[in-house]
Amino acid sequence: MNNSKEGSDLKTVLVTGANSGMGLATSVELAKRGYYVIMACRDDVRGQKAIEEARRQSGSNHLELRKLDLASLESISNFAVQFRYSFNQLDVLINNAGLLAVKRTVTNDGFESMMGVNHLGHFLLTNLLLEPLRAAEQGRIVTVSSSAHKAGTIYFEDPHLIQKYSIVKGYAQSKLANILFTLEISERLNGSNVTANCLDPGPVSTNIGISRSNRLWGELFHALMKPFVSSSLKGAQTAIYLATSPEVVGVTGQYFHKQRISKPSEAARDKRLASRLWEWSEREVGLITK
């Protein structure tokens, strides 16, 4: 295989949603710490601005931009193929990208957008990158969830919320799915050199929710919430900790808040629910035949 790092022995980290907010802050900090950072972004123009800013803030040239649209299974599959061609291993995968949709929208593949991007997109991406993660000395999967999961239910009878949509139902469901995914994949990777953990970053000022369909609402929301939320860098600290700290070597299947193991909701600890969600997710993204 080729290696875009040109023989460098730097550890490689992939950050989704790296064009702004916590994703950008995480990319900058990891580049400062000597990681080779792949910034995965949906939009070319915003992505280019982000990588220029990341290089400026970090003082590092060990960053590269790659296009990834988590709302498209085709984009995810193509990205994974190209990544595996370019890199022999992946030390850290940070599933950071997130979407908050006021109105019900769907992905390219017909998934409700929050479930599609926040969970199913990352579910497929992670599964397609398990080979390079296993090739690392100690691969780490870090998934950004939220305390909003505590209000979440997995609506198996209507997972894409066709019948009764609300922003709270959709977002909470997707964030619960993030934790159940972490629980199940940690079980499936048990005994391997790959760990999987998730986190609640706390209330953070990011661009989540400012999508093309609801930009005005998103900008108003963030303006109103700004006095009550943390900076993107502060919100990124737990993700950075899980990506880099020797304290979490071998720690897997856990939910973290403020760099400490925390206790998620009862539903988020339900192994049967996690297994059922995994099987449903495999069918949705085409990893197994429906």
Quick take:
This protein has a single domain, classed as NAD(P)-binding Rossmann-like Domain (Rossmann fold). 43% of the residues lie in helices and 13% in strands. It has nine helices and eight strands.
Description of the structure:
With 290 residues, the protein is α/β, with parallel strands linked by helices. It has a single domain, classed as NAD(P)-binding Rossmann-like Domain (Rossmann fold, 3-Layer(aba) Sandwich). Helix content is 43%, strand content 13%. It has nine helices and eight strands. It has an eight-stranded mixed sheet, sandwiched between helices. A hairpin with a 2-residue loop joins strand 7 and strand 8. Helix 1 runs parallel beside helix 2. It is globular. The two termini are 33 Å apart. About 4% of the residues have low confidence.
Q: What's the number of domains?
A: 1
Beginning-to-end CA distance, first to last residue:
33 Å
The spatial strand order of the largest sheet comes to 3-2-1-4-5-6-7-8
Mean pLDDT: 91
Unreliably modeled segments: 219-230
* Structure classification: alpha/beta
Query: Please, how many helices?
Result: 9
Order of helices and strands: EHEHEHEHHEHEHHEEH
Give the helix level as a range of percent. Answer: 40-55%
- General form: globular
Number of strands: 8
Rg: 17 Å
CATH homologous superfamily grouping: NAD(P)-binding Rossmann-like Domain
Largest sheet: 8 strands, mixed
CATH third-level topology:
Rossmann fold
Strand share of the residues?
5-15%
CATH-defined architecture? 3-Layer(aba) Sandwich
Q: What's the CATH class, please?
A: Alpha Beta
